[in-house]
Queue: 4 jobs
Job 1
Amino acid sequence: MRQALEVKDLHYRYHDGKEALRGVTFSVPEGECLGVIGPNGAGKSTILLHLNGLLPETFNQPPSVFVMAQPVTADTVYAIHRKVGLLFQDPDDQLFCPTVFEDVAFGPRQYGLSEADVRTRVEESLHRVGLDGFGKRSPHHLSGGEKQRVCLAGVLACRPDILVLDEPTSDLDPRGKRELKSLLRSLTATKVIASHDLELVLELCSRTIVLDEGVIVADGPTVEILANEPLMLAHGLEKPHSLLHLHPHGAQRGDL
Amino acid sequence: MHIPDGFLDGRTAAVSAALSITALGVALNHAKRSMPPQRIPLLGLTASFIFAAQMLNFPVAGGTSGHLIGAVLAAILLGPGGAVIAVTAVLIVQALLFADGGVLALGANVFNMAVTGSVGGYALYRLIGRIAPGPRGRLVAAGFSSWLMTVVMSVLCAGELAWSGTSPWTVTFPAMANVHMLIGLGEGTITMLAVAAVARVRPDLLDDRSGRPAQSYGPLLAYGGIIVLGMVFFVSPFASPWPDGLERVATSLGFEEKALSPPVIQSPIADYRIPGLGSSVAATGLAGAVGALLVFVLSFFLAHLLVRDHRQGSPT
Amino acid sequence: MRHDFIDRYSRLASPIHSIPPSVKLVGALIILLLVVTMPISVPFLHGSLALALLVIAALSRIPPGFLVKRLVYLEPFAIGAALLTLFQTNGLALFAALVLKSTLCLLTMILLANVTPFADILDVLKRWHFPALLVTTLALMYRYLFLLIDQAERMSRARVSRTFVSGRRRSWHLLGTMVGQLGVRSTERAERIYAAMRARGWR
């Protein structure tokens, strides 16, 4: 199986000199959904930005990030943008056009598609996220969940091979979360999801890495990692509720 | 000081529009050539910020309230060219969407606020910053230049209204200038406090944005020329602030009474006479000069309050 | 969001709303020009323009109460500015004429803003070859306007709730700090927006 994403010994320093990532290594096979969890400030968002080549300061070093076997460098970064769709944490940062249609059309237009093709893509993408007919709406009138879905549509319109999502459920109410979860489940692209929502990670991600202070402290099957209470607590997390009651007798015996 | 529609005549609207379009062209050209792409969204966001900041009212004397214009603050954050574009955007949206300021009067409003206010304010800010360097000096520069530009913008406004025949200079100048000397205090104070707040959190945002000196002289000269032209059109016909004083001097020296450039409309109510001070126009001019001195001194005090001596511990 | 009144009625279905946006924009400009340049001495001219505007208002299906409220809110600014005309010969007549003219202009712009979505106006400007940077700035400004106003309001409320001691000095200080914080937040958001634009292929 091909590796959709490979990160090899990634280091990154903030502008103020603080080391954000201190040698991160992991890979994501095609079609897998990887969860990235950890306390605030661990560096999750920073890793995600690297996956889309959005931190050009790292291009001078030997490449540490590979997307579909292609290294992320100054020359390849535009091709990388097309392969990796990144959903930012705050939908308001990403929904920057005056109407929904224009925003979803932004990506396809950048790639030089004809207006007819752009229109098809937009309608397709809005349909996939369940927002048919929203084209003429203004972003500031939408709910948090609707904004999130428009952002997803905008990313899907670019037909990326890999989807990277940064805290996708942080602004959503329970219904919004349910809708997003079922939506994400229906998408077959390779996915990387950074989230505090451990239930989401449990439901969608087969594998999870735990990040703390710029290093990966655990990498394995999601259920194993999330059920490991000492590990969770040691890194500012906790065992998700659904695992606490999964096998009540089994949990007491310490095995799952 | 947004001039509504119907207050300016065709000539004033056309001339100010021509000046504004030229200045905007200079700004856009300069931005296209030398602004890094990551700052393009900043123009739009700063425009929304200025608009939102303008909605915050502050009380001025006697129950009226003033509000921020923000042209100088925009220039401090974006540099002169960026501020011209951002403040123009604010004025366009205000005119089209909020009926705040006339559409036909956009030329004048843009010239007063986006061009003269921003660029003039920026030049003054940099100048004072050079004379009084350091964080305190920067605050003095911010405060004083925003106060002064508020008054200057109002004087331009007064001139445009007089040139259009809407109201005589002897009415508009004292009315606008005096009121804005007060409102300008609010503008100056808020600008100073805002710059101090930004300096605490993101001092890098206050770095010199005008680009390498060689690059920025061209546009600055262009702006300067446009502003001077505007002053010539709108203010200098009335700019003899002490017409009776000059006349008195002329007669006492034995010169023939020369008609100074005739005012656009004959005001049957001549200048209001204020005993001991002569005309209201002259009194306003005097008040302006005294005010400027006072504001300069006041801003030094405020700057001292805001930037405490580091040896004394953490700032406010 | 209280300030979204700007957009509330701009997408209604009415004969006025279906007029192409460029026609509406040009029409509004023509009306403004006519109001401002035509002499008030012939009341027929302004009277018929006023009638035309009222007919447009009626056809547009915008609730009349809303239009009246907007007009009432904006009128004092026009009247206040017009007071300057009183201090000359014929001052009263000039004042009345000016108030009438500016009221008609205000009504025109209120109608335009509420029968044309701003996004459509931007499209028209693009087609008229307005400079791209200016149009982008206008678009971004419009998009984030309400967000910024909301932030300003929230800060304002927080400021009020923390002003236990009513000190004028304190409230000025908070006001200035709020403005500064708003500025920093918008700058940081602009940086994030740039990243999002690049992520979707912008060069």
Note: Confidence is low (pLDDT under 50) at residues 249-256 of chain A.
Job 2
Amino acid sequence: MAHIHLEDGAFSPFWVIVWSLAAAGLVALALFLVGRREASPRKLAIAAMCTSVGFAVFQVSIPVFGGIHLNLTPIIGILAGPGLGSLAVLLINFFSAAVGHGGWGMIGANTVVNITEVVVAYYVYRLVRNRFRLDRFTSGLGAAIAALSVSAIAIVAIVAVSGIQDSEQTKEEILANMAIIAVVNVAVGVIEGVVTGYIVRFIGKVRPDLLGEAEGGPEPEGTPAEGA
Amino acid sequence: MGLGPRAVIYLAAGAAIVAGAVAYLAMGEEHEEEGLIAGDLVKVAVVGGALAVAALVSFAYLAKKPGDGA
């Protein structure tokens, strides 16, 4: 749910560079994690599917609360893992900026926010599902709420630190407005949490092997693509 | 007696929704002047009602076990 929808020019060039470098560092870490062991064709296919579905869902604006959209970043994290999931959200942000959904200069900040969601959702899901042995719906709901709450705070922090150029509001007013928006975002994040919970539960019924990594099990061997 | 992780998750979800609703209603007069809050409440009520009907139907007809003759 969390996404900075400011246009280019809202952040000063200094902060655009800072957030772009931060995103580049996180993406480099994700590439390192992915490169440590060879990703199976099945895993790459899941990540590609997550990227395309995530991009499509990003563009569907729901006309309530001033316009919201789902991200599906928690489900991306649970299915693709923190490494490939981080690369998926980078691509989603590039393609979104290409169609005018957030400025090009926001790609760095938005990638940092979305990678946060992916990583938090993955590890919270693992914790709740494996340690506390809760059902998949509750685990998905908890992972999404935790991820989207952290990212809502991250957005407020990023905008508060960066400031908005040529804004008539003072920094305190911007921070107060952003805090209210963050609270609303967390509430809307519960809706995304319910969606995430149902998707995880459905996948767990029809293809539990796709949740293998997040649930601590080994990734199944001998996929058709590997065997070919 | 401490809360279990399941109770914590559902309490957090409920608290987030209540806090979000309060924050949104307090967001400012401009929203009220534009009719956004009233419009949003109608939309949320309609969608919530539709989802409630869908949930009732699914629980009544789809939640049967295979042996129930569903």
Note: Helices of chain B lie at 5-25, 29-33, 36-62.
Job 3
Amino acid sequence: MNNPTQSIGKAIKSRLSKIFLISLLSCTLLGGCGVVKVAVVATVAVVGFAGYAVYKTGETVVTGVGKAGGAVVTGVGAAASVVFINGDFKTQYPGRVQIVWTAARVAFEKAMFVKINGSFDALSGEVTAETREGTKITLKLKSSDQQTTEASIRVGVTGDMELSETIHNLILKELSAPSGPPALPRTAQEIK
Amino acid sequence: MKYACTILISISLILSFLGCKNAPVQLTAEPMIGLENPSLHIMVKESEVPPITGSFGWGFSLLKLPPEFGTTLSAVNNRLHSAMLEEMTVKGLVFDESEPDLLLSYAVAGGGEIHTDELTQAYGDMIDASFLEMESDLHYKHGVLILDVLDRRSGDLLWRGAIMADIDMTLPDEEKQARCNAAVKALLQHYPRPGTIDQ
């Protein structure tokens, strides 16, 4: 005959086994590898984007320490940021509008573009020209601050990154000439 | 009882393996040609699954490359466009420059950094970036490539992937396309959602 205490023990052991197995089965069915999911999704709170899940790996990930220095050129030849969007080649040049405008004008003349026109004031400027084949080039300038001018170059109707970059390099070359940027005209009318 | 236990344990083990197969996986950054210490950062809009059907076109290209990088901006642009075109086409999207459903933008900095303000500034009026409210001031460090996928009509940023690494500046020209392809593939393998694609 079985001891009643042993029978109760066996019954409890059996039920615990069932509960464990059912729990394991439920976790498997409902969560799959739930531990992995939690590990990945847990990074969301770290960055704190509203409405975005963030996943990351490695050590050189984004950091919240300071700013990257913005998109401003710190000198001729530095890694200026260039944005090409909707056919416009947008960048920045060191110096005031007048300096950049003059450098661009000289660069256009040296490149033997034709129909060179334009004007400037302290806040903005524009130079237009055409290549020998009749492709229109438009350079728009806007003062960013005393040391920086924002520029937008467009070549042709839809834009051309390669030709825009060539023009950008021609302007940079004038700005970084050993003799310094070209001399400023006294007025915009003077060079017309 | 013994048989029941054995069967239940067997079923549990089988289902565990099946569960793992479909579960999200940790991001990994495999070794890539010309890139050292790569790390990944993927951001996905939670309320909307980025589509893998329809069309895509180019958004902006933001380039910050130092002169010692030894290449033209347009060459880098062409390499990246080629790599992105291939990866997105493989996923089932069709390239359409005129009126695409999705816009694919990218930013690249060789050995430098990119601040999220620069990305927002590059978009200009294309999107209202106010929905991207961030609690901290972020910038992407090291040599970085950032890919953005936007819904062109709504202007919503659906997916952003960034890969950061030390860039080998001495890599021969003929291997630079392979490096671009590897970096773009490493990012876009996590599109539309990390771990939810076939590996």
Note: The beta strands of chain B are 35-45, 55-64, 94-95, 102-109, 114-115, 139-140, 143-151, 157-167.
Job 4
Amino acid sequence: MLRQASKWLALTVLMVGLALGGVATAQAEPQYGGSLRVAITGDPPTLDPHTSTAVIVLEVTSHIAEYLYARDADGIVQPMLASALPDVSSDGLTYTIPLRSGVTFHDGQVLDADDVVASLDRWRRIGTGKNYLGDASIAAADPQTVVITLTEPVGVLTSVLGWSEGAAVIYPASLVESAGDEPIDAPVGTGPYKLKEWRRGQEVVLERFDGYASRAEEPSGDAGAKHAYLDEIRFIVVSDAATRQAGLESGEYDVNYRAAASDLEHIESSDRMYGWMMRPGYNYIGLINHASPLMQNLELRRALQAALDVHPLVLGAFGAEGVFALNASIVPPEYGAMYNDAAGTQYYDVADQDLAKSLLAEAGYDGTPIRWLTSRDYDYQYRGTLIAVDQVSQVGIDSEIIVRDWATTVSLRSDPTAWDIFIGNFTIAPEPEMIAYLNPNYLNHYEGSEEYRALMEQLSSTSDLAERQAVWAQAQEEFYEDVGALQMANAFLLNAYGSDVHVEARYFLFQAWNTWKD
Amino acid sequence: MIAYVARRLGSMLATMLVVGIVVFFVIHSVPGDVTSALLGQDATPAQIQALRQRLQLDQPLPAQFVAWLGGVLTGDLGNSNYMRIPVIEAISQRLEPTAMLALAATLVAVTLGVGLGALAAVRHNTAADYVVMFIAMLGLSLPTFWLGLLMIMLFAVNLNWLPAAGYASVTQAPLDTLRYLVMPAASLGFSQAAVIARMTRASMLDALREDFVRTARSKGLPERRVVVRHALRNAMMPVLTVIGLSIATLAGGVVVTETVFNIPGAGRLVIESVQRRDYPVLQGAVIVVALVYAFINLLVDLSYLALDPRVRYS
Amino acid sequence: MSAVALPARTGSSRRGLKTFRRPPVAFGGAVLLLVLTMALMAPYITTSGPNDLDILGRLAPPTAAHPMGTDDLGRDVWSRVAFGARLSLTVGFATALLSAALGTLVALVAGFYRWLDEIVMRVLDGLMALPGVLLAIAIMAAVGPKVSNIVLALTLVYLPRCARVARSAVLVVREHVYVEAASALGAADRAIMWRHILPGTLTPVIVQATYVFATAVLLEASLSFLGAGAPPNVPSWGVMLAEGRLLMRQAPWMTIFPGAVLSLTVLAVNMIGDGLRDAMDPRLRRG
């Protein structure tokens, strides 16, 4: 126990150190110029967030293209290309969005309402916008105003328009027209950097956009002023973590985007580099396939929930303390308002084998093995699965581990008859409606109890914050009671920087504006 | 001679057809497709369906095969589904590191192999011979990737002499290229060197027993000259075959070595394409590799002609 | 007629026994025996199971309790090495046996019926033009990670190589007088094949099979290293090396021990192979 406590203490010191490190470097005087070489994990499949939710797509393109709104460091939505928050009608159906004037695209065109209408329409047609905009009408009221008229209230619309995953980026109308539904490989945006060259499989090179119209507010998170101190940003594809780290240490790269957790200690002990933990990262959970007959047994799901001992599982999966946080709340604390670590969390991290055994007896479990689908391509999935299987075997649950390479795993996951549980990282969002596994039509086929469905429906048509919090608290309680998923931890993303790189403001994703080099 | 080459090319074509069929159908029977890599994990089923249609992945397999084969026969390997560039371009972009690695490994293998093999033959049944043969045995038995890992541990992690992994283009920083290639080339070349050393030793021993060597010796020529001019030269024929074969079999080793040292070459491209289910690239890469293999084999056969005029092609 | 082949066979087997007295072969035999014992006795010579997890005891350096240390999930490396021998030996042996047997069969049929020969040779050439690792990766991805599938994939890789060796032996034997004589005497094709040609091909095929054993063990490790081999819960040296690769700085024992045992095993088989070759085919003996 004592050993455990001292470990946590050391960890806290480390985290504070990380935070202070960030602050301390921010005090030096910014300098212009230079090239930032960022070693990234893989070649982005496209540079068009409308057509891909992959994080790498977003982190590269966020420098090029912008959205109407953006989140600040406290998770609060602020205007970006819009000049103010939308004016919402009292029935919650009409959003009037005023645009900033004097914003130009990289090709010299001036941003107006037609560009926004064309982009949002495309985002709805081929991207994640479909889930929110549905049959809404999107129209330009005048060159500086866009009006969205919904057919039913969507409480999170503003939040979604300022969200980075599968982002509703704004392109010039002409580009939208010429690209159609094809992915855009040469995006034109309003961002502080423009695309210079994309050598497929090797690097994406961005250069400063001199015509960038910055906001005046202080930089905060994804919002506020964006200073393009660097002349150039090179995203260099280096798929191997050890090579990225070695390159950072030899000075070949300035940033190791996604350092290995096992290198954290080493990074912190060196004065030539420092680490930055991007929180909250992902939700590391056990996704339950509710379409599988076996998993429809509530007592069995409860037995699984009760059997899991979360800390050793996540520690073993990620290989080091300090790169994850045990978190019972489905919306992480970093995302602000909807965070709730009380509702239903008596079911979290129970690790009670006797309870699990009695639940198992109630379930009438007949020894049918649970099929855990996993892939070695992401070792945290595989290791977490091995440990979970080991833990549940101790209460008498049998398992079969199905290991495939990632592409096969993805395709098996979409077959509801092929698996029971999948442990892995899932994207988290500030609003429950935006978290895929809480909603129907996702891989886990989760409908939930009647109360749960009613609560989620109520939530999606509510925009009042206090009311939303109250409704979500009940829904989270229901989700836990019903074991909608095996909630475990937030898995952070570790970025390592050379010590000559300074960052003024950070977001929970990688960004290189407001960043300079000595 | 010309007829021989023509016949060889003909049978090469037949071989390539077999390769094409095997590769196409094996690869397409692998579950999963490129959509997961392209769309990210939160894609909706409708998005996936639309993409499959656009890439014509929903067509029946035989139709896809005919379309692909038709393209290949006209020199068009198609486009990468993931990168949306021609397959040829995708492969040629990644060819430099692989070619440099193969070249360096072959250099290591031939120098070490012929040198040690000749030494062992000349010092037949002495300690030197036994040591060389034992080293060759090790070369055949040590997994190249383990050897690579040990080298990284020693020279990169502990001594910090060489970069642990990666690659620098020869057009930008030729000296760095060398630094990056030392360990991969040594670990990959070692096992090939073993094969070459064994063959060199064996055929040198044969040659040293031949009449013309004895004649040369009896004429009082210096031993060095006898060994190099007469014995080694005559022993080279089977050795050349082995060298040719070893270049051809490098392809498999390159895949593993590029993984160990994270060299962004064609071998990695193949592995990445398997992971992404980028069928056109995968098929194209295998066709290219098989072509190189067949071509080198042909070259080896033809080089007999140059080395030994007694060989006739009937 | 079979009397012609018989003395040669007994002669070679007698030489085969003597072979084991030569130091390299004796060494190889001893090591292989040791590895075999390790595989068979694995449960009795280890103190914890190869898949027993101990998260809090992870990455422990070698101690008395864990002579080869523990890995990133706290599993005992020694136990995994010992149990891993089972996979390597099974795959090596099964692949050698299958590809030699099937390869010989293909060669017999193709070598005897000349019209088939050309087609078979083109198919074999095609298979051989594909790098073994790539072919095996593709097959494994298609059929899924099972031990039997590894054997299947590796057999497809090595069958053509065995068939080639067997074929050239068939061609030599076929020209021998006694086969022609048997044929002239009206013996059935099948009888000629089994009784006269097969024995003549055995020697080179057995030598080849030994090398297939060694390289199949290596290839299984490479496949598992690349993530396309052994199923979960089946300890594999290749998988262990892949896991150790990511932790070379923190836990070198995860890389050193499995690799050393793997290399020793392959070395042993290769030494035996060389000995067999020298003993069975004096023409190939060098020195």
Note: The first helix of chain B runs from residue 2 to 28.
